[in-house]
Amino acid sequence: MSVPKPGQSMQIHSYKHNGRLHRVWDETTVLKATNNVMIGANDKALVTESDGRTWITREPAICYFHSKYWFNIIGMLRTDGVYFYCNISSPFVYDQGALKYIDYDLDVKVFPDMTYIILDEDEYEQHQNEMNYPHVLDQILKNNVNHLLRWIRQKKGPFAPEFIDQWYERYLTYLS
């Protein structure tokens, strides 16, 4: 898989299990890109929903994607601390200038004090039935929820105390 160079801009495309495009982030700056890990940043990014509606992100965000884990992590820098929004998703691929993944509805919101809540379990069950997720996929996703929760509790990866600040500082160097 080819990867972009740090400083380049890329789009992020989120799909659903049935192959339909779900959401597009128009512009994210690549901070690190390998075959296994992609870290990007954006601020006030234009987001387009599948129905054509658009909105703008409110704060700077550091985006962490992995090619082996079934989740991605968005660290949002707000005035009262870093909040994380974690999507249970397929591992990423980079294709035709865009990072792409399948969103599997389950989300984990992590607060600055590292407490968390699991979101959208009802939406997951609905889509699991509608799109006939295979049993093995259900097991993979649930195992990865547990893996993600261990990372949160252990402050590992993007949850490490300095991770978001360090990557945000790198992002600022591309803006000047």
UniProtKB/TrEMBL annotation:
Keywords: Hydrolase, Magnesium, Metal-binding. Its cofactor is Mg(2+). GO terms for molecular function: magnesium ion binding; nucleoside diphosphate phosphatase activity; ribonucleoside triphosphate phosphatase activity. The keyword Glycoprotein does not apply. It catalyses: a ribonucleoside 5'-diphosphate + H2O = a ribonucleoside 5'-phosphate + phosphate + H(+); a ribonucleoside 5'-triphosphate + H2O = a ribonucleoside 5'-diphosphate + phosphate + H(+). The active site is at 23 (proton donor). Mg(2+) 2 binds at residues 105, 107, 120, 123. Mg(2+) 1 binds at residues 87, 103, 107. InterPro entries: DUF402, FomD-like_sf, Ntdp-like, SA1684. Its EC number is 3.6.1.15, 3.6.1.6. Pfam families: DUF402. It comes from the Bacteria. Residues 18-156 form the DUF402 domain. NCBIfam families: PRK13662.1 (NF010183). Has nucleoside phosphatase activity towards nucleoside triphosphates and nucleoside diphosphates. Belongs to the Ntdp family. This is Nucleoside triphosphate/diphosphate phosphatase. It comes from Pontibacillus litoralis JSM 072002.
